[in-house]
Each structure stands twice: as structure tokens, then as C-alpha cells.
Write a structure and sequence with these properties.
It contains twelve helices and 14 strands. The chain is of the alpha/beta class. The strands form four sheets. It has a seven-stranded parallel sheet, with helices on both faces. Strands 12-9-14 form a three-stranded mixed sheet. It has a two-stranded parallel ribbon with strand order 7-10.
Length: about 325
């Protein structure tokens, strides 16, 4: 009988692709859904456990009898630092507490963090590596870093692995969709220096494959890894990969002044505070957006469990745009 894996965050962009991957290999899957989640889009073969991250009894039932846990659930926007902590730290801590009580023999707890936990790189070629001291520049990044530390410090005998993806794109993603929508109109507006910025990206299918390789490797317990494509990208790389598919000829690029980005973030954040609804951008998020080098390297992942990204940028972007068009998003 195949192993059983518990997945949290299964209704999100990465989680949905992870479920497809696991279904394709015939792995038994249980998902943890909050009481308000419908789960209508989940594969029929998935076992559903319901409960909030405050409900220790429900969490105990969810973790019982599984071999590995892939913890994807979290928040990317919140009103304040406390909101990020509640969405990113508390769930991981309570899950691990449930594991220690109900499933102390768990083979692996894999926490999906973010490059934001490390912060931007000092240069745009090699980027940050696992040996570099983290320097997050946002409340989101700080919460992810604290969640990583909690996982390692409170796991007991449960082996923990952390992965830090950079920007993730692919079918189903709504964030990078906005970039392609702009390019289709012949314009690119960047909250930062469009000529200077460099960043790491990975196709979601490469990421989920890397996540499962890390979760199943004996070498990865107690370690943190970047799961990314091999080269740092410029905006021009993305533009040229998208050009044959979108068909634009001339392109106008606009680099927004940092102070304007900060002002927009401040105003949107203030509006979110008044309405008690987190905004997509705030001053904290604005500081992330204007950084020059969101770059990391996956050398350690290649050394420890032979991970290599396989999907070329041109192929991945063409597939993603075709998916958007099929869904009527573009």
C-alpha cells in the first residue's frame, strides 16, 4: 500500500497542482480543510478532514495515520504583524503539537516557506544561499522565518524540512497573470527599476516535484532548501519569452519611483486598516516590491536530492498563457 500524505493549503494555487501530482502517481492523500471551505474542486479520491487550526481535536484526527505532511497553508496578506503570525506561525505550531500527540512516528513534516523569509540578495547573479543569514524586509517574510524556527525548535523527534520557493508561476496563478495582461497591451509597469531588477522564478510543476523530492529524501531532515530554476531572470527574459505567444511588437516599460510605490502602499494599507480588510499592497509589501534582487540558488537541492528544474521559461510561459486564455482570464 502506498504512503498517505496530508496536505494543507490544498485549495490554493500550489496546493491544487500538488494534489494533481500526487494523484498521478497514485499516492493516497488526505487534505485538511477549514470548516468554511467547500472543497468542490478537489479530486474525488482525496480524503477530507475538516477543522480549524485552533481545534486540536480536529488536528489530531487529521494527522493520525499519515506518513508525511506537506504544510502549504498560510497567509500572504494581513492587516499587521500579528495577523501574519496568526496565519503563518500558529497553524504550524498546532499541527506539530498534534503530530507529537497523535503521530509521533511521522516520517516527515515539510514546511513550505518563502524566499521572503530570507530577504533580497545583495547581488543579482548568484543570489542568496542556505548558508546566508536571513534578512527579511517585510512582516510576511518575518512571519515565515519565525514559523521556520518554530518548526525546527518544536518538532521533537519529528524530522522537519523547509523549502523556500521564489516567485511561482503556472496555470492557476493570479499574481503573475497581471504581468501577462500588461504585456498583452504592450506595456510593463514595474514597482522598481525595470532595467536593474533580477529575480528567481519556478514553474509550479517543477516546484511540486521538488517539494516531494525533498519530503522523501533521507538527506533533507533538519535542513532548509531553495527550490528554484537555475538562472536569475531579468524583465527582458520574461518579455522575450512571452512575446511570441502574446504577439506584441512594441513595448513601453515604466519604472515607478520608489517614493510613489511607498505612497501607494501607505494609502492602500491605511484603507485596509479602516475597513479591517487586508489590502493587496501596503507600505510593508511595497518595500518588498522595490527590491532589486529577489534571487536564490538551488545548488544544495541538487547536491542533496538531485533536484533540477526541467521546464524552460519559454515553454512554461506559453503553457501558462494558453491556460489563461482557455479559462477566459486573458
Amino acid at each position: 500500500m502506498s504512503e498517505k500524505i496530508l496536505v494543507t493549503g490544498s485549495t490554493g494555487f500550489i496546493g491544487a497542482r500538488l494534489l494533481q501530482y500526487l494523484a498521478g502517481e497514485g499516492t493516497r492523500v488526505r487534505v485538511l480543510l477549514r470548516p468554511e471551505s467547500t472543497g468542490d474542486a478537489l479530486p474525488g479520491t482525496v480524503e477530507i478532514a475538516r477543522g480549524s487550526y485552533f481545534d486540536m481535536q480536529a488536528l489530531g484526527q487529521a494527522v493520525k495515520g499519515v506518513d508525511r505532511i506537506i504544510h502549504l497553508a498560510g497567509v500572504t496578506k494581513a492587516l499587521d504583524e500579528a495577523g501574519y503570525d496568526a496565519g503563518n506561525i500558529m497553524p504550524a505550531g498546532n499541527l506539530l503539537a498534534a503530530v507529537q500527540k497523535e503521530n509521533p512516528g511521522l516520517q516527515r513534516f515539510l514546511f513550505v516557506s518563502s524566499l521572503a523569509a530570507a530577504g533580497p540578495a545583495a547581488e543579482g547573479i548568484k543570489g542568496v544561499s542556505e548558508s546566508d543569514d536571513p534578512r527579511p524586509v517585510s512582516a510576511y517574510g518575518r512571519s515565515k522565518l519565525r514559523a521556520e524556527a518554530l518548526c525546527f525548535d518544536n518538532a521533537g523527534d519529528v524530522p522537519v524540512t523547509v523549502v523556500r520557493p521564489p516567485a511561482v508561476y503556472g496555470p492557476g496563478d493570479r499574481d503573475i497573470l497581471q504581468v501577462f495582461q500588461m504585456l498583452a497591451k504592450g506595456v510593463l509597469v514595474s514597482p522598481g527599476d525595470v532595467m536593474r531588477q533580477r529575480f528567481s522564478m519556478i514553474h509550479v510543476d517543477d516546484l511540486v516535484r521538488g517539494i516531494m523530492m525533498a519530503a522523501r529524501s533521507d538527506k533533507t531532515a533538519g535542513s532548509t532548501y531553495y527550490i528554484t530554476s537555475s538562472a536569475a531572470l531579468s524583465w527582458n527574459d520574461v518579455i522575450e519569452a512571452a512575446r511570441p505567444v502574446l504577439g506584441f511588437k512594441k513595448l513601453h516599460t515604466i519604472s515607478l519611483p520608489k517614493q510613489l510605490v511607498f505612497l501607494a502602499g501607505f494609502m492602500a494599507g491605511a484603507a485596509g486598516t479602516l475597513s479591517r480588510k487586508p489590502s493587496i499592497i501596503n507600505r510593508d509589501k511595497a518595500y518588498e516590491l522595490v527590491q532589486d534582487y529577489w534571487v536564490c540558488q538551488s545548488i544544495q537541492a541538487r547536491l542533496d536530492f538531485d533536484f533540477e528544474a526541467e521546464i524552460p521559461l519559454e515553454e512554461g510561459i506559453a503553457e501558462t498563457i494558453a491556460w489563461y486564455r482557455n479559462k477566459g482570464w486573458m
